Amino acid sequence: MKGLELAEKYFETYGMPLIQKKFKEYEKRIAAGLVGDGSECYGYDDEISRDHDWGPGFCVWLTKEDYEKIGKDLEYEIYNLPKVFMGYGPRRVSDWGFGRIGVFEISQFYANFIGLDHIPRDNDEWLYIPESSLAACTNGKVFYDPLGEFSRWREKLLEFYPEDVRLKKIASRCMTIAQSGQYNFGRCVKRKEYFAAQYSETKFCADVISLIFLLNRRYTPFFKWMHRALKELPILGKEIHQKILNLVTTNNYQEKIDIIESICSDIITQLRIDDLSSSNSSFLLDHGPEVQRRIKDRALRERNVWVG
Known about the structure:
2 domains, 54% helix, mainly alpha
């Protein structure tokens, strides 16, 4: 039983009847589901996941007006629902797992992830929201939302970054991928600076994964799941997933260098396919400015290409 499936069945068995019985007036104004932090929200939970912040439970989302009227009462009633369901539970809450389920005011729920109590309004607001935070507040599943207000936020965020912001991030990733992988990794190995080499390899992998997600117009999840999620992406996902796995599991430094070059070659080919670069260079650093030149917003286009 996956946590997301368990949560939906728990809501259908106990949550919905509770709403219909004690909060009938608000039945068409309440949204429910499971979204946010936690492996179960991505569908990646397993037996290891069940030792903390896993078990029967769900989220309920209310408008600010409704939260002020019934938020505390609804929270009390949900808290008193059965703690064990289908043989699972009670839910174990870790020191930092409080607030993953329960009753939330919609704008504050999203603000906890993106730092804004409104949908981002301009490029700067979009640019500085961490990709993993956007992934977390748009994952999981909405079980019930007749009003549609929670889903309105969700759908707007899932439309992805504005194109200029996406391009700015892609340009930056081209620079840092080339710097850490194509340039610094081999130099660190030659100097026998093995910590620096390991850091370069890790930085390279993280930025490559971020770039592949950007090419797919998907948000990169929390680092623990970013490599696993990579293989689900249609553009270069499976190929890069396997090459990164090969990179981090081989102890042969020359093989690592060859894999790094192969990954960068794959990315460069895709940039050309997507008409994001016309450079013939095999050095990914040369493609960053090419991507940045395609940004329409002049102020954003003129910013430091390394920052994104």
